Amino acid sequence: MTRLHSVLLVLVTIYLTASSSDQNFPLTQQCLACICEAISSCDTTTGCTGNVCGPFRITWAYWSDAGKPTVNDEAPESSTAHTNCTVDTYCSILTVQKYMHNFQQDCNNDGKIDCDDFAAIHKLGGYGCKMPELPEVYGQRYHRCKQKVGA
């Protein structure tokens, strides 16, 4: 749980230092931490494996649907823009927040949009989140984290 607390501290710091225009993000830092924990054990040192990159395991299509955020004003058309963003903690969080802003919906039909919906959207996509439950390992990690941090 120490690693998760470290991740939460990083996320809180990023949240607090984000510009005021970025404060309308739909996910809480606890929700972000649990999605990160579920998808990669929040391994912030990971690069790319196949077509997924960074601690949130973001594909090029997901990054593109989020508006192609970049690090240090890199051109989104650059061949390295996706990788550079998704392995950068701040840019990857920005990507997830923007993706969720674009695709937020009530995936589990419980009448509210919350972290459970965002976890489904992150793993299953903005058009595929209506599946009855999360894939086994991802779902177990997500629910265990959610119980611990109150996401």
Q: Helix/strand-derived class?
A: mainly alpha
Number of DSSP strand runs: 2
The average pLDDT value, as a whole number, equals 86
Silhouette: globular
Identify low-pLDDT runs: 16-21
Biggest β-sheet strands, sense, barrel: 2 strands, antiparallel
Commentary on this structure:
With 151 residues, the protein is mainly alpha-helical. The protein has helices at residues 2-17, 29-40, 60-65, 81-86, 89-103, 115-124, 136-149, and strands at residues 48-49, 52-53. A hairpin with a 2-residue loop joins strand 1 and strand 2. It is globular and about 40 Å long. The chain starts with a helix and ends with a helix.
Furnish the topology, listing elements before pairings.
Layout: H1 2-17, H2 29-40, E1 48-49, E2 52-53, H3 60-65, H4 81-86, H5 89-103, H6 115-124, H7 136-149
